[in-house]
Amino acid sequence: MLTFTIRRLVIAIPTLLFISLAIFLLLELAPGDPMAQVPLTVPPEVKAKMREALGLGEPVYIRFFKWIIQFFWVEPQVLIDNLLGTGFADGKLRILSWQTRSPVMDIVAQRLPQTLTVVGLSYVLGVLLAMPIGIYSAYRQYSFFDQIGTFISMVGYSVPTFFTGVLLIVIFSVTLGWFPSIYDTMHQVNDWDSLVIQIKQMIMPVSVLALYNAAQISRFMRASMLDNLNQDYVRTARAKGLSEKVVVLIHVLRNSMIPVVTVIALGVPQVFGGAIITEQVFKVNGLGHLLIGAIEANDLPMVQTLTFIFAVLIVLFNLIADVLYSLLDPRIRYE
Questions:
Q1: Are 275 and 331 in contact (CB under 8 A)?
Q2: CA nearest to 307, candidates 108, 98, 80
Q3: How far apart are CA 98 and CA 299, in angstroms?
Q4: Residue 192 and residue 261: Cα distance in Å, rounded?
Q5: What is the 3-state secondary structure (H, E, C) of the chain?
Q6: Residue 68 near residue 48 (C-beta atoms within 8 A)
Q7: Domains assigned to the chain
Q8: Is the per-residue pLDDT at 334 higher than 60?
Q9: Coil, helix or strand at residue 240
Q10: DSSP result, 75-142
Q11: Cβ atoms of 304 and 27 closer than 8 Å
Q12: What distance in Å separates the CA atoms of residue 220 and residue 110, rounded to the nearest whole number?
């Protein structure tokens, strides 16, 4: 397993380099100009100097090479400096946002807690709800609980999150006035009253995303459980006199988790990417909201960095899913 993990990490290096090159070239070919928002009264020679200050006057391969050096060499040094108080990155040029002229990774670090608080919590809650619902629906196939669970799952997965979010705002914010419709990212929790306010403003966005995630994962869980409940090893375990609880929750569940692990693991990068639509609806100032703002402002360094971070997370959690396969099923061995 250690050899497999090291080999996959080595293979991931050229994979990520190719992904970064593809993202960089695609953004270069995308329409738009960072100087488009500059007032028309600015003289052309001033605009030319502004373009040179942003690095747009250099060839594409030079700008790509500089970005690679900044992302893989300078930014890790900045992280080490922040953790240990060293000065490895002093005086080195970092990846700067064209929109704010601030380091991109500093802005990401500021937005990350909001994303983890809302989107991360909704994903964990969705998984915790989906697992028992999928297991019990499969075990009691075609029962009343299974019918209700199937209906709610289909609705939760089919209805777009922007519609669900707006519907909750109309009912619970506009009509009933129970919860705020806009998420206050500047709110700080200092006492019990402020904690109650924080919980109230989190209920609707967390509920929208938790319903969507739970609907998706519960359907995979149910289908996988149904596929394993009719296997020969299940009948053999029951014939040996094992209790139904042991058969279902140990033998069947362990084998059923193998395909579900892929769905859960690949859904984790979405937490860091943020639920873009939901963050827009509730004005959650997370990474998804940051990405939309960067695209609208044609902030290529921000868009490129965020997109590449999401790609790194997908490659990483693919590897984690493969490792979990061998832990769930001893028959799976990577040589």
A1: no
A2: 108
A3: 5
A4: 37
A5: CHHHHHHHHHHHHHHHHHHHHHHHHHHHHCCCCCCCCCCCCCCHHHHHHHHHHCCCCCCHHHHHHHHHHHHHHHHHHHHHHHHHCCCCCCCCCCCECCCCCCEHHHHHHHHHHHHHHHHHHHHHHHHHHHHHHHHHHHHCCCCHHHHHHHHHHHHHHHCCHHHHHHHHHHHHHHHCCCCCCCCCCCCCCCCHHHHHHHHHHHHHHHHHHHHHHHHHHHHHHHHHHHHHHCCHHHHHHHHCCCCHHHHHHHHHHHHHHHHHHHHHHHHHHHHHHCCHHHHHHHCCCCHHHHHHHHHHCCCHHHHHHHHHHHHHHHHHHHHHHHHHHHHHCCCCCCC
A6: no
A7: 35-97 (no CATH), 110-328 (1.10.3720.10)
A8: no
A9: coil
A10: HHHHHHHHHH---TTTTPPPPB-TTT-SBHHHHHHHHHHHHIIIIIHHHHHHHHHHHHHHHHHHHTTT
A11: yes
A12: 35
Q: Around 131, how many Cα atoms within 13 Å sit in the side-chain half-sphere?
A: 14
Gap between the Cα atoms of 177 and 195, Å rounded: 18
Tokens for 165? 């979010």
Q: What are phi and psi of 14, to 5 degrees?
A: -65, -30
Tokens 């929109």 belong to residue: 99
Q: How many CB atoms lie within 10 A of CB 243?
A: 11
- Terminal Cα-to-Cα distance of the chain (whole angstroms): 7
| Tens digit of each residue's pLDDT (9 = 90 or more) over 69-103 | 888 888 888 888 888 888 887 878 788 887 787 88
Distances, alpha carbon 197 to alpha carbons 20, 119, 176, 193, 215, in Å: 41, 18, 16, 6, 28
Residue-wise pLDDT tens digits, 195-211: 888 888 888 888 888 88
Residue linked to tokens 């990577």: 334
Tokens 């995979």 found at: 220
Distance CA 44, CA 75 (A): 34
What's the length of the chain? 335
Helix axes 287-296, 253-273, angle to 10 degrees: 50
Model pTM?
A: 0.79
d(CA 91, CA 93): 7
